[in-house]
Design a protein that fits this description.
This protein has a single domain, classed as Rossmann fold, CATH 3.40.50.150. The protein is about 30% helix and about 25% strand. Strands 1, 2, 3, 4, 5, 6, 7, 8 and 9 form a nine-stranded mixed beta sheet that branches. The longest helix is centred in the N-terminal third of the chain and has 12 residues.
Length: about 280
């Protein structure tokens, strides 16, 4: 863990010398989102819609300690005072944390892998995480960490992209080649099974589709890059090369044009949970 100076307060943290996991894949994700620290908020149409819908599912009481897991640039932080007495911000990207820290609203800013949270067990009253879990290699470990750090009766809300997201873009690419240009997101049913395998939690699930519209496919690709969300497993970038390739992709995507523009669908799974009293 790398903490920003003068913003760490004990005793909720296990060890301020813990270092963030150094797996190459994690570093690439952190770097990609870090490059987007200044462009993220302007491009985060989906992220803002989903986060506000998710936040509405939390109990609106100004009590307790909340963790914003995968906080990004912290655009949501001014709203969190209605949901907790204090909160800590956690993100894999130090650049995103630095951007969030410009607001100075969190009790602490913590660089950490969500699968190895440097927080004391049973130290958190609420946990919020929106559109972060899909970037985690081992979501079961993340879910286990969330259970570990929450107090009895602790509440959490998570959102994540699931299979079917960017289906239109995937189908357009499939007309050109067999390469993987779009991330494979876990099927909702599989993720629900992972959750339900963790005992001691009252689970609730809801899936919702969020359509966004673009004037052209280049605008979609630019938005993904501005979000830092253009990392694709097995590829260094989105994979678009050459004017002719762009033209062919644009033609293939035209079948998804509506009166509002080219449609890109995102499938979002909302995961709510509360720990049972007897589990802690």
């Amino acid at each position: 863990m790398t903490a920003l100076p003068n913003l760490i307060n004990q005793p909720i943290f296990k060890d301020s010398a813990v270092t963030c996991a150094a797996e190459p894949a994690l570093k690439r994700i952190a770097q990609s989102f870090g490059k987007a620290r200044d462009s993220y908020i302007g491009a985060a149409r989906l992220q803002q819609k989903v986060a506000l819908d998710a936040l509405a599912l939390l109990a609106k009481t100004s009590q307790g300690h909340l963790v914003d897991l995968g906080c990004g640039p912290g655009w949501l932080h001014p709203k969190l005072s209605d949901y907790c007495q204090q909160f800590s911000a956690v993100d894999l990207s130090p650049d995103m944390l630095a951007k969030a820290a410009e607001l100075g609203l969190a009790k602490a800013y913590i660089q950490a892998d969500a699968a190895t949270l440097p927080l004391q067990s049973a130290s958190v009253d609420k946990l919020f995480s929106s559109l972060m879990l899909q970037w985690c290699k081992d979501p079961a470990s993340v879910l286990g960490q969330i259970k570990r750090v929450l107090k009895a009766k602790g509440q959490f809300v998570i959102t994540t992209l699931v299979d079917g997201s960017l289906a239109e873009l995937r189908s357009a690419f499939a007309t050109l080649d067999n390469n993987n240009h779009v991330n494979n997101f876990m099927p909702a049913e599989q993720l629900i099974q992972l959750c339900q395998a963790i005992s001691g939690i009252d689970w609730q699930f809801k899936q919702q589709s969020y359509p966004l519209y673009y004037p052209d496919v280049l605008s979609l690709a630019r938005e993904l890059k501005s979000l830092g969300a253009n990392q694709v497993q097995g590829k260094k970038r989105l994979g678009l090369t050459g004017k002719q390739y762009w033209q062919q992709l644009s033609q293939a995507y035209e079948q998804h044009r509506t009166s509002e523009g080219l449609k890109a669908s995102y499938q979002v799974l909302f995961i709510q949970g509360q720990l049972n009293d007897e589990d802690k």
